[in-house]
Each structure stands twice: as C-alpha cells, then as structure tokens.
Amino acid sequence: MMAVMTRAEAPRQALGSLLYRAAVNRQNFDGQDLTSVRTQQLWFDRCSFVGADLRHATLDRCSFKMCDLQGADLRGASLRGAAFSGCDLRDADLRDADLTGSRLGYVNTGIHPHGRTDVTGADFTNALLRNVQVDQVIGWAE
Q1: pLDDT of the chain along its 142 residues, tens only?
Q2: C-alpha pair distances (Å), 142 with each of 58, 128, 133, 137
Q3: What fold, for 1-142?
C-alpha cells in the first residue's frame, strides 16, 4: 500500500497516522518539525529529511531506501531494527540514538559507488550500536 500525504495535514500527524508497513515514496520533509513522531514500520523510498528535526522520534523497524537525511537531528531517536540502504546521513546528529539491530548498507545501482550509505561527519556520540550490521558504508569508523 502506498501512502499519499496531503499538504493539509501536518507532517508529524500524517506520518503517525499511516498504517503498519505503509510505503512513503518521494516525499519531502526537509526542515520539518517531526519531533517525537511515532511510526508503524514505514517503508520510506527516496524521501528527503534534510535538516529535519526528528529528536526522540520512534522509527523502529522502518526502512529507508535512497533517502536523504543529511544534517537531520536524530538525537535520542529510537531506530531499533531500522534499515538504511543507499541513504545520505552525512552530518546527521545521532547522539544518544538507539540503533540496536539496525542495518546500514547499499542499493545495487550498477554504478559504483552510487547507492552506498554515507555517514561521513555523522555524530554517533553515546548512540547504542549493539548488533548494528554495516555493509559498504562510506565514512563508517570500525
């Protein structure tokens, strides 16, 4: 099921009201206040969250494919079991975030290195990184 977001709805309420495993395609949340949003394992495809405020958001088991989260504020967010494939997380603030069991990887675009998740400059200070799976991620310090 593909979710359709209307401009009349506030983005936080719209995301929170989507059904379990709904697909959200090519939506722009740049600079939006999405603090404390709670979602139902949504599938984000080519969405943009540049500079979005996602502090204390609950995004457990959400899937992010080719999404732009550059400079997003994810402090204290719960991202347990989330998947990031081919995403841009450069300069994202993930301090105190819970990434337990998350996967950071790539999408095979056929044009290397396009499709790789990039975490260059992301701040993981005090983030929970237990059982995080990392595959071909740019900027990841082992």
Answers
A1: 455 555 546 888 889 889 999 999 999 999 999 999 999 999 999 999 999 999 999 999 999 999 999 999 999 999 999 999 999 999 999 999 999 999 999 998 777 767 999 999 999 999 999 999 999 999 998 6
A2: 26, 15, 11, 11
A3: Pectate Lyase C-like (2.160.20)
